[in-house]
Design brief:
Elements (H helix, E strand, L loop, with lengths): L1 E6 L2 E4 L4 E9 L7 E6 L6 E6 L5 E3 L7 E6 L4 E6 L8 E7 L10 E2 L3 E6 L1
Parallel strand pairs: 2-11
Antiparallel strand pairs: 1-3, 3-8, 4-5, 4-9, 5-6, 7-8, 9-10, 9-11
């Protein structure tokens, strides 16, 4: 089993930056890809960014060019650095982890951390 805990959410002004973190615990050796999703009220979860075990990354169109996902395997953490934030970035951000060989197939989810961007 893997547990994911997000942190770092909060309030940021438009144009500002924020970094959210995800710490994995449990059977960490089973984790392959990790990712970030977000969900605004009334909407489905949206893919934000993903990163493979080897460090290959992928970004959703809405955050591409403004966000960076990176991981620190030694610390069992994955991060999402968001820059030039806009109010549309307001959402609950969820960390996800996959254990299988198929990319972006998520087996574990965190509880989420709230990010609010004010204008």
């Amino acid at each position: 089993q893997v547990q994911l805990v997000e942190s770092g959410g909060g309030l940021v002004q438009a144009g500002g930056s924020l970094r959210v973190s995800c710490t994995a615990s449990g059977k960490i050796v089973s984790i392959n890809a990790m990712g970030w999703y977000r969900q605004a009220p009334g909407k489905q979860r949206e893919f934000v960014a993903g990163i493979s075990t080897g460090g290959s990354t992928k970004y959703g169109d809405s955050v591409k060019g403004r966000s960076i996902i990176f991981r620190d395997n030694a610390k069992n953490m994955v991060y999402l650095q968001m820059n030039s934030m806009i109010p549309e970035d307001t959402a609950t951000y969820y960390c996800a982890a996959g254990t299988g060989s198929a990319p972006y197939k998520w087996d574990y989810w965190g509880q989420g951390t709230q990010v609010t961007v004010s204008s």
